[in-house]
Amino acid sequence: MEKTRAVTARTSSESTRDIPEATVARLPVYLRALTTLADQGTGTCSSEELAVAAGVNSAKLRKDLSYLGSYGTRGVGYDVDYLRYQIAREIGVTQDWPVVIVGIGNLGQALANYSGFRSRGFRVVALLDADPARHDEVVAGIDVRPFDDLEQIVRDHDVAIGVIATPAVAAQDVADRMVACGITSILNFAPSVLAVPEQVDVRKVDLSIELQILAYHEQRKTQHAADPVEGASA
Amino acid sequence: MEKTRAVTARTSSESTRDIPEATVARLPVYLRALTTLADQGTGTCSSEELAVAAGVNSAKLRKDLSYLGSYGTRGVGYDVDYLRYQIAREIGVTQDWPVVIVGIGNLGQALANYSGFRSRGFRVVALLDADPARHDEVVAGIDVRPFDDLEQIVRDHDVAIGVIATPAVAAQDVADRMVACGITSILNFAPSVLAVPEQVDVRKVDLSIELQILAYHEQRKTQHAADPVEGASA
DNA sequence: TCCGTTTTGTTCTCCCGTTCACAAACTCCT
DNA sequence: AGGAGTTTGTGAACGGGAGAACAAAACGGA
């Protein structure tokens, strides 16, 4: 229902309307590819070049970009810097997003140290852990603080995005607390299904699931290799 | 073309034929949910219960399971242990998969220490790093070894799955070496697009991309909240 | 044994995403 | 200025997945 709302009417402030989810998921990939091209000194690129750099089909790339607007020039291609800015603006990474990370185990530390966040518009404003033994530590130049400080930190820094890197058993509690203090986007690394209100976005990253998917295909490959040619048994 | 091969003919050893990719990606989720249920002492569950535990629609769950075979009992539900075994077998995690991890930075260490691998049919047989300064270290009870040992380790342990946790610039080289010594499945944490031969599977996990997707939706939320009601400007 | 209840397995329809193919538009060269 | 060559933006066809809805099958009680 909500989906067809206002497709004909147009308000002033909208270049952005109704970008498909699949496209949104690829925009960061394009952004990265464009950054690489820019670093190489490329000023202009065709959809084909960018598609190769991003690892996708050029038709798909063009259609994706068309949802943002007409930022290319026919017969020429795309201006790398210009397109990069437009995509960054569309995603929202021209501004700085404050982020809190909860759970400073191995993964939490890796995340805290990950330079890819800072360079892409995210700033880790706090590391939280429930274990008092960790509250003395400094990870990635940031003090580890008690989990109970969450409310205050979220308020002080106007945090909207939280990262959960705790064990599975703690994840739901952490999510509840995050939601309670106004966080509306959660990146969950814990292997558990989170129950959150409708308006809260949750994305899940599960390291072992990815490996299991690979294992499935790997198993099929070796199976097939061992098989005689299909139908030879008849 | 290849896809429609032998859909009518049936060889002896196949319960498994043509499982949709979307389903494959969910099987590990079901597996985890079943393990949780089993730990709680649940012996039997309905598709509805399991669907809730896995965070999916029950119709979708039933359809997914139907690709594996008929492992439920109408009017009763699914036997938790039996279904769990069947899914594990289908994915291929009843056997043990030897895995090598290349790149022992923060992320590599987190991966090496991640208990979720071992408990799910994966065994880290080697940690490799190009930096000689790291070759004395022991991470997660495993010696860090020179990257050049890759060939020998892959041969000795019959490794089919490799994990790349290096910086982006090194990723393609590592992938090439992996492919050269017979690895056919790669899990790539480096933020770069890998070029590999057709028969090699690559899955990519990009931490910052997930955050950017959240940022996009977050931006829209706040934007909409600031907007007057659609059409009120006219 | 038979009927009502429960729950699976499957069919059917709809929608989203991908890809093809082409018209529109821009540049360059003559 | 005009035509040839390029490359974008998009309409249309196609394929696959999601969800609703139902028929088939198992159980339990009388």
From TrEMBL, chains A, B:
<comment type="similarity">
    <text>Belongs to the transcriptional regulatory Rex family.</text>
</comment>
<feature type="DNA-binding region" description="H-T-H motif">
    <location>
        <begin position="29"/>
        <end position="68"/>
    </location>
</feature>
<feature type="binding site">
    <location>
        <begin position="103"/>
        <end position="108"/>
    </location>
    <ligand>
        <name>NAD(+)</name>
    </ligand>
</feature>
<keyword id="KW-0238">DNA-binding</keyword>
<comment type="subunit">
    <text>Homodimer.</text>
</comment>
<keyword id="KW-0520">NAD</keyword>
<keyword id="KW-0804">Transcription</keyword>
<dbReference type="InterPro" id="IPR058236">
    <property type="entry name" value="Rex_actinobacterial-type"/>
</dbReference>
<keyword id="KW-0805">Transcription regulation</keyword>
<dbReference type="InterPro" id="IPR036390">
    <property type="entry name" value="WH_DNA-bd_sf"/>
</dbReference>
<dbReference type="Pfam" id="PF06971">
    <property type="entry name" value="Put_DNA-bind_N"/>
</dbReference>
<dbReference type="InterPro" id="IPR003781">
    <property type="entry name" value="CoA-bd"/>
</dbReference>
<dbReference type="InterPro" id="IPR036388">
    <property type="entry name" value="WH-like_DNA-bd_sf"/>
</dbReference>
<comment type="function">
    <text>Modulates transcription in response to changes in cellular NADH/NAD(+) redox state.</text>
</comment>
<dbReference type="InterPro" id="IPR022876">
    <property type="entry name" value="Tscrpt_rep_Rex"/>
</dbReference>
<keyword id="KW-0963">Cytoplasm</keyword>
<dbReference type="Pfam" id="PF02629">
    <property type="entry name" value="CoA_binding"/>
</dbReference>
<feature type="domain" description="CoA-binding">
    <location>
        <begin position="92"/>
        <end position="193"/>
    </location>
</feature>
<dbReference type="InterPro" id="IPR036291">
    <property type="entry name" value="NAD(P)-bd_dom_sf"/>
</dbReference>
<protein>
    <recommendedName>
        <fullName>Redox-sensing transcriptional repressor Rex</fullName>
    </recommendedName>
</protein>
<keyword id="KW-0678">Repressor</keyword>
<dbReference type="InterPro" id="IPR009718">
    <property type="entry name" value="Rex_DNA-bd_C_dom"/>
</dbReference>
